[in-house]
Write a structure and sequence with these properties.
A hairpin with a 5-residue loop joins strand 13 and strand 14. The relative contact order is 0.09. The protein is mainly beta. It contains no helices and 22 strands.
């Protein structure tokens, strides 16, 4: 020592999680000299600091004691790319190791019938708060979930009702309920495809529509079902009605004007055979009703 000051001191190195390093001797009043460079996975070495002050090989040693230099680092950055799997293009972003990923952009467009379900890396969902701990560039894959729609069933006023059914885009419709209507045979459920076409719905139909739909029941007359037509005389055409053997006829059309006279009632075959909505149908064939005007 000279005037109470040691000539040689020990400089220790704290690599702060990096590679382990040996100490070195330094001379008071002299440049520190060559400094080691530590390595730390996913970080870039910035430099050595003593008491929060940077040092380098030319720094003059003016400390009157042994010291420990602390390694400082900056996190490496990586590229996060995006595969939207059928959605619109999303640009890559830079992410910093051990920091939140930051704002993630949703794909600007979606595949038909799909809703965006998030970004995934190696099948693990990520968010803006996910801490980046990958030591390499990565590609996030967009996951999509199929939209769901509702089929409402219209089986007719007198048929057994059918509850609505939820279907998934791109999947089979699945089980369909068969309604019943006395005197009729059920021929199936039918929907409009939106292009003027009527499509029959089956359990194996793949749902490719991006809206809710109404399915209409189609019926054909059964063995006990008959048609009752009406003479319209001078009145506009009167639509026929369907009647069922053993059941009441039901609602009858308005009585027409016959030769300028308001008719009084409907009859079949003979004016003595007046029919009303409560008349029970006992014919085994189609019939035509005429109006009696007196």
């Amino acid at each position: 020592s000279i005037a109470g000051i040691r000539k040689i001191y020990t400089l220790n190195f704290d690599s702060a999680g990096g590679t382990s390093l040996n100490s070195k001797f330094v001379n008071y009043g002299k440049p520190i000299g060559t400094l080691p460079i530590p390595e730390k996975e996913n970080y870039n070495f910035i430099g050595w600091f003593i008491d929060e002050q940077p040092i380098n090989s030319t720094t003059i040693w003016e400390y009157e004691q042994d010291k420990t230099a602390i390694a400082h680092y900056e996190a490496k950055t990586y590229i996060l790319s995006f595969d939207s799997a059928g959605g619109g293009q999303v640009g890559a972003i830079s992410v910093e190791y051990n920091s939140p990923i930051g704002l993630l952009q949703n794909p600007p467009t979606s595949p038909t019938g799909k809703d965006f379900d998030g970004w995934y890396i190696d099948n693990v969902k990520i968010s803006s708060n996910t801490i980046w701990r990958y030591g390499e560039n990565k590609t996030a894959i967009a996951h999509w979930k199929s939209q769901k729609f509702v089929i409402t069933f219209n089986s007719g006023d007198k048929a057994t009702p059918v509850d609505p059914k939820t279907v998934t885009y791109g999947e089979k419709v699945g089980t369909l309920i068969t309604p019943t209507l006395r005197g009729y045979n059920f021929e199936g459920w039918f929907i409009s495809d939106g292009n003027g076409n009527v499509i029959q719905l089956t359990e194996d139909t793949i749902w490719e529509y991006t809206e809710n739909k109404i399915a209409m029941a189609d019926w054909s007359k059964g063995s006990g079902t008959f048609t009752l037509s009406f003479n319209n005389y001078d009145s506009p055409l009167i639509d026929p009605i369907t009647v069922i053997y053993g059941e009441k006829i039901g609602t009858l059309p308005d009585l027409p004007i016959v030769n300028g006279v308001q008719s009084l009632y409907w009859y079949i075959d003979d004016p003595a055979n007046e029919i009303t909505e409560d008349t029970e149908w006992n014919y085994t064939q189609d019939k035509t009703a005429s109006a009696f005007a007196g």
